[in-house]
TrEMBL record:
Keyword Electron transport in annotation: no
Gene3D superfamilies the record matches: 1.10.1660.10
Pfam families per UniProt: MerR, MerR-DNA-bind
Phylogenetic placement of the source organism: Bacteria, Pseudomonadati, Pseudomonadota, Betaproteobacteria, Burkholderiales
Source domain of life: Bacteria
GO cellular component, one term: cytoplasm
Keyword Transferase attached: no
Major location (coarse): cytoplasm
Domain HTH merR-type residue range list: 9-78
Subcellular location: Cytoplasm
GO MF term set: copper ion binding; DNA binding; DNA-binding transcription factor activity
Gene responsible for this protein: cueR
Alphabetic keyword roster: Cytoplasm, DNA-binding, Transcription, Transcription regulation
Biological process terms in GO annotation: positive regulation of DNA-templated transcription
Protein name: Cu(I)-responsive transcriptional regulator
Length: 141
């Protein structure tokens, strides 16, 4: 299946546009090894094929779901290995869901604290401010 009518090769800007990733990030993913080094023209310009564009879309979707670069690297290896056990993929996704749940609980607690502080603040012309008072408190971690 072709991504565009011409099927490539694409320069970095075209590959970026086709995958909805910035050209800077395309180069970054290549530097990280998430995207293999691609062929270059005699003038040194990178040339991407539909395969690399598809990989960039995979990376972009993975980033959209909040996976870390290390997780994406592992997912890419599994995606490219047709003999992979799906249990390995599920483990990564399950661990990511657990991390998201923990982060959401942390954010909910922050929201609750801030809501309480906002409720306690009169928001008038007086200098008294429980929000600033709370921020200035020393708390043990």
């Amino acid at each position: 299946m072709r991504i565009t009518p011409n099927g490539g090769p694409y320069n970095v800007g075209e590959a970026a546009a086709l995958s909805n990733v910035s050209a800077k990030m395309v180069r970054h993913y290549e530097a990280l090894g998430l995207l293999p080094a691609v062929s270059r023209t005699d003038a040194g310009y990178r040339q991407y094929t539909d395969k690399e564009v598809h990989t960039l879309r995979f990376i972009r979707r993975s980033r959209d779901l909040g996976f870390s670069m290390a997780e994406i690297a592992e997912l890419l290896k599994l995606w490219q290995n047709r003999r992979r056990p799906s249990a390995s993929v599920k483990r990564i996704a399950t661990e990511h869901v657990a991390a998201l749940d923990a982060k959401m609980a942390e954010m909910a607690a922050m929201r609750k604290t801030l809501q309480h502080l906002v409720h306690c603040c009169n928001g008038d012309d007086r200098p008294d401010c429980p929000i600033l008072d709370e921020l200035a408190q020393e708390h043990s971690q």
